[in-house]
What does this fold into?
Amino acid sequence: MKIIQLNIYGYGQFHHTEIMLDSPSFQVIYGENEAGKSTIMSFIQSILFGFPQKLQLEKRYEPKHVNAYGGSLVAETVQHGRVKIERLPGKSGSGVTVYFENGETGGADVLQQLLSYFDKTVYQSIYSFDIHGIQQVSKVGAEDLGKFLLSSGLLGTDAVLQTELSLSKKQEQLFKPNGKKPEINAALAALKDIHTEVMKAKQHLEPYSDLLNEKEAAEHSLREITERKRELEADAKRFGEIVEALPLFHEEAALKDELYKARSHFPSNGLKRMEELEGRESPLRSEYMALKSIIREQTEAIEQVPDDERILEYKEEIERLRGEYSAWEMKRAQYGQIRTKQEETESRIHEEKKRLFSHEIDNCTILDLNTGAAVKEEIREIVGKHQHLQQKKQLLDQQFERVKENLEESESRLSDYAEGMLEEEERRQLEERVRGLEDVQRASLDKKKLREEHRAVQTDIQKQNEAVKKKNSRLKGLGAFFALIILLCTGWLLSEELWLIAAVLLSLGLAGFFILMKNSKSDTSFLEHLEKKEKELKEQLDAADHESDSTADMETAKGMLWKDEQIRRSYELEEVVFKQSERAYDRTVSSFDDWEKEYYTADQQARLAFEALHMNSSFSPLALPDLLQSAANLQKDILAFRQAEKKAAELSADLTAYEKKVASLAQSFEIKGTACSSLLDGLLKALKDSEENKRMRETAAAKRAEAEDKLKKIDAEIGLLEEKKNELLSLAGACDTEEFWEKAKEAEHLAAVKQKASWIQQQLKTKQHLLAHEPLDFSKDYTAEKARCEQELIAAADTENQLKKKLAELTVHIKSMEESGVYSDLKQKAALQKEEVKQLARQWAVLAAARHMLNQTVEYSRSVRLPSLLEQAESFFSRLTNERYVKVFLPENEQTITVERKDGTRFAAHELSQATAEQLYIGIRLALSCHISTSEAMPLLIDDGFVNFDRERTGRVMDLLRELSEHHQILFFTCQEHLLKLFHESEILDLEKKKRAAGLSPHS
It folds into this structure.
């Protein structure tokens, strides 16, 4: 696994920050103190293993200025390619999501698999170390330095050393061989003191001692009598069981004596074996005779079957012909179908040629016809033109009828309007008459109004005269006043010799005089207008008094004039419509001429198309697409006809060849028939009959051979049975079968005796324990022995009761003495102190067992796992020390590490210098990280781990790390600027520069 990108949403001093690790194999992250190196290192571990819990002592790096907490990292893996691991705050640190390149996602279980199921503690102990871990080397005492390095090789930390020291310290707090302060030592001393006090108190109680001795003697006697009682009960029980089983023992002895005297030599299971031999021999002899009959029958059957196998030589060819028969039938059916299709196609071609072409035409000419896309496009254009012209003709016909009808209607209306109009002289007279009558009527109707208007004008004239007089009077006074002012001012200005101002003022005065005069004239003009109007009104009133009205004549005349006016207007409008209709008619006629020209051109194109297709031009041009498609289909039919003709010829040749083969074979075997199928059936039947005859002969021969084999076997078995029967007769000492059966009856009787003896022995197996102490003696009276044991048991029971009573009395007496004084208290105190010592001893034993198991585990790892790890650590240590030290090994029975210098001198770990011990520690840690094999090589995090090294040693460490970066990603955090010279610029990530580029304070 190689980390290539960090996305920090919010963690410590970083928020919304993206960090690209441009050198995925060896990345140096440089920054001064508080630049964020430890924050980034903690961020990587938090994303991989979860955020520290609030109750833990580890720093959580919660951001102060943003609410976001967490982030993600992108890593390249071997198994899944590029993955993104995102972790956000969640319950129990579960808010983690793994994004894969194929769009799938996973949770904490997938991440655990990617991390090879390491937790944070294991990862830090193997793949992460800093200056604090190296400085720990200098803090460990000289006697424990070897153990510290050994523990680092086992776990990557000093956990083993610390655990062992803790267990040893706790053991020493409990017990030391020569100590006084440990708890067990102190408790044992107290117990010893208490025991001394108990013994002193006991000396003051001599009667108490006598009672204890007497009690102890009574208890001993009680135990002896109880044991004796148990023995008597066992003996009485044994003797009783012997009395019950004694008849069986007697009968067993009698049967054994009978079997010994008989001493029969009849073979074991001889009767059964003889019966089995005879039972097996009888069916064998029957089967022997049956097989002889079968051999005879099969021989006759072989002789009766004819032997003609000549046709079998042609079996493969006949089978092949039979296999090809279905293909032959298919070809024949296909040939028939093709011929039928040919006839149909030929008929269709003939009909189409008659329909499409006006004269006889051959197929080659038809195939030469051009029916391609270009011709189709030309015909489509021709048809399109004809369709367009036909539609245009229809529209022109409709338009012509409509225009013609409109023109005729307009002409008719004009004629009607002309007849209804008045003559010009008649109309003029009517107009003059109407005007005269209107004047008379208007004067009569406005007489009253004229009078009112005349009186109003007279009133206005009177008012105007009065106003003019008043105005003239005011103007004169005002003019005189202004004239006086102007004259005075002009005189003063002249006296002051202000000529220009005086002239201007005088001019203004003259202008004002002329304006006043003009206003006066305008008022006079208006008065004259009113007087003239008053005169006209008076004349009209005089005329109205002398004229009479004729209203009826005027209405009639007006009606005639209005009607004539309406007719004239309609006539004028209709004239306009008539002219428009005439122009539309002329345009329609002109359009007909244009259409005829276009139609002629289109018709010529259609004729050329018909000629190119050799078709009759009597067809409509609109039928050209269908005709062209028919011609194309006809071409396809002709081509199909030719292909079918070729296919039919091929099929005919195949059919003829097959039929000739069948006929030839049929003739060879004198099979009659005309049809190919009947000939083939005859061949197959003859082949089948020949095979059946062969099969029958082979079957009969096989059966005969099988019967002969069985006959030989049965003959051998019968002979073997005879031998076994003779052997049984010999074993039984019998000359014939009858004597054998008599001896068999005797053997059956002895077998019954043996069976009965066996049953008795089975019954007596449960009584074998009775003979454990002594063998059975038939002369001894076991009933009397049983009675004796029962009497002794009664006496022992009485003695036991007396001892129990005495012991109870002694116990009560001793208890009363113990409850009365110090002795009981001291005894109880001693018991409590013993229990306390036992508890402390158990605790010490638990610690000793744990320490022993720890040492065993260390020893196992030391002997199994450490040798290969130390071999790699030895290589690293040698390189780090510039080959001054060449070996690292483990001494026997010691938990430490020893190194060997180039000159052969060996040093224990505590004898090394501080820098060399640190180099050994680094070699062991790097070897451990390489030794742990996982599916994903985990990144190695190093935080300023080499500050105590000089330049040469630092260079060697960096060379070793660069070599390790081929398999593990190295993330090296440092604040030492002089170390940057050891790396390429592309391998350095400067946190200060990145913050300045992002516009942040370097220490924010």
